[in-house]
Amino acid sequence: MDLSKIKTLIAFVGRSNISELTVTEKGVTVRIFTTPGQAASQGAAQAPKAASAGSIESARDASSATAETSAFPVKAPVFGVLHRAPAPGQEPFVKVGDVVEEGQTLFIIEAMKVFNKIAAPHAGRIARLTEVDGGEVETGDVLAEIA
């Protein structure tokens, strides 16, 4: 396994919410892990990335403008392919206007064949939702807003 691949794996673990990754290639095994306190401090140190204008959909009216001021953004913790439904052809986990509970699955982000469930950080109503489905998202992209 070459050094550039190892550096890529280290960067992936540092940006994701996984705590350990083991990869074996050509008889060489690399184990990368983070300690619980280390992952939290790295996430806080990263500057949030602004979402692109086309990545959020919302019905804009006077009442939604008021809701936006108190909306909490749900950001992508890792880069990867965003899935809004549990499987192709199935209904998405959530739609705009749905009421969600804390811990409820909102999305799945697939990164290096690892499926990361993105859960609601708190209860509320989905005010905005990304249009991306089956496409790539970057760490820090706004995926949804919960009011």
TrEMBL record:
Residues 41-55 have a biased composition (Low complexity). Transmembrane segments: none annotated. One of its GO terms (molecular function) is acetyl-CoA carboxylase activity. Pathway: Lipid metabolism; fatty acid biosynthesis. It comes from the Bacteria. CDD domains: biotinyl_domain. This is Biotin carboxyl carrier protein of acetyl-CoA carboxylase. Residues 41-64 are annotated as: Disordered. SUPFAM superfamilies: Single hybrid motif. Coiled coil: none annotated. It comes from Rhizobium gallicum bv. gallicum R602sp. Residues 71-147 form the Lipoyl-binding domain. InterPro entries: AcCoA_biotinCC (IPR001249), Biotin_BS (IPR001882), Biotin_Carboxyl_Carrier/Decarb (IPR050709), Biotin_lipoyl (IPR000089), Single_hybrid_motif (IPR011053). The lineage of its organism: Bacteria, Pseudomonadati, Pseudomonadota, Alphaproteobacteria, Hyphomicrobiales. GO terms for biological process: fatty acid biosynthetic process.
